[in-house]
TrEMBL record:
EC number of this enzyme: 2.7.7.60
Pfam name, any one: IspD
Site, as annotated: Positions MEP for the nucleophilic attack: 152, 208
Residues marked Transition state stabilizer (site): 15, 22
Similarity-based family: Belongs to the IspD/TarI cytidylyltransferase family. IspD subfamily.
Database matches in InterPro entries: IspD, IspD/TarI, IspD/TarI_cytidylyltransf_bact, ISPD_synthase_CS, Nucleotide-diphossugar_trans
Organism: Polycladomyces abyssicola
A molecular function GO annotation: 2-C-methyl-D-erythritol 4-phosphate cytidylyltransferase activity
Record protein name field: 2-C-methyl-D-erythritol 4-phosphate cytidylyltransferase
Gene it is expressed from: ispD
Main function: Catalyzes the formation of 4-diphosphocytidyl-2-C-methyl-D-erythritol from CTP and 2-C-methyl-D-erythritol 4-phosphate (MEP).
Superkingdom as given in the UniProt entry: Bacteria
Keyword flag Oxidoreductase: no
């Protein structure tokens, strides 16, 4: 029943465009990465956490982990070129029955959603958090002309954590590597195996810090949560 978590934190944050990679930026009193790690560190069902850091940042992350007294971090792995490579690297350090993959740049995930996701993955083997899209989404061709408008009812914006039986995720990554396939999330690689992935309702506050305006939104969510405490 053991649960491991992989936190890919090896990205450069090109779309954010800050000198310091977004996962190391301060949010309130701590770096974003520490906020994210603390959610999992304090979740009673999480047994161990593997952080994946950029090649030159492993010791820096190890120091941060020590500084904040995080005790569930079992390894700081070295990341790769793409997020998928980083997750695969993290997977090599875990032997738990279940694995959650969660972006370092998503500090607002809650214990409640992690618990719910674990409940569903234990029943079905693959589960992800997602929210219904708010905007109408259009598929547009390279010339900038609308091709079609998918029915919004069936569109969900996918978040992390994404949870899997570890053996399934290992198999999915192995196959993707062999076939030279890149997925934008881990679920996509599992879907390629023909496995059903269950969607669990997330919440709109579980944002990924991606572009500069997300920093202001993150500060606002952080302040709002503070007054709720
Ligand atoms: N990530 C990673 N290794 C990579 C690329 C991304 O571990 N080679 C991590 C990021 O650190 C982040 C998460 O995957 O926590 C989600 O990726 P994304 O938001 O795309 O972050 P970046 O790749 O850093 O940003 P960008 O795509 O704008 O460069
Ligand atoms: Mg990226």
């Amino acid at each position: 029943m053991s649960v491991g978590v992989i936190i890919p934190a090896a990205g450069r944050g090109k779309r954010m465009g800050t000198k310091v990679s977004k996962q190391f930026l301060p949010l309130g009193d701590k770096p974003v990465l520490i906020h994210t790690l603390m959610v999992f560190e304090t979740h009673p069902e999480v047994d161990e956490i593997v952080v994946v850091a950029g090649a030159g940042e492993v010791s820096r992350v190890e120091e941060m982990v020590a500084q904040y007294g995080l005790e569930k971090i079992s390894a700081v792995a070295t990341g790769g070129q793409e997020r998928q490579d980083s997750v695969r690297s993290g997977l090599e350090h875990l032997q738990t029955e279940w694995v959650l993959v969660h972006d370092a740049a998503r500090p607002f995930v809650t214990h409640g959603h992690i618990t719910e996701l674990l409940k569903v993955v234990r029943l079905h083997g693959a589960a992800i958090l997602a929210v219904p899209v708010k905007d109408t989404i259009k598929q547009v061709d390279p010339a900038g002309i609308v091709e079609r408008t998918p029915d919004r009812q069936s569109l969900w914006a996918v978040q992390t954590p994404q949870a899997f039986r570890r053996s399934l995720l290992v198999q999915a990554h192995q196959r993707a590597l062999e076939q030279g396939m890149t997925g934008t999330d881990d679920a996509m690689l599992v879907e390629e195996l023909g496995i059903d992935v269950r969607v669990v309702m997330g919440d709109y506050q579980n944002i990924k810090l991606t572009t500069p305006e997300d920093l202001a939104i993150a500060e606002a969510i952080w302040k709002m949560r503070g007054t709720e405490r």
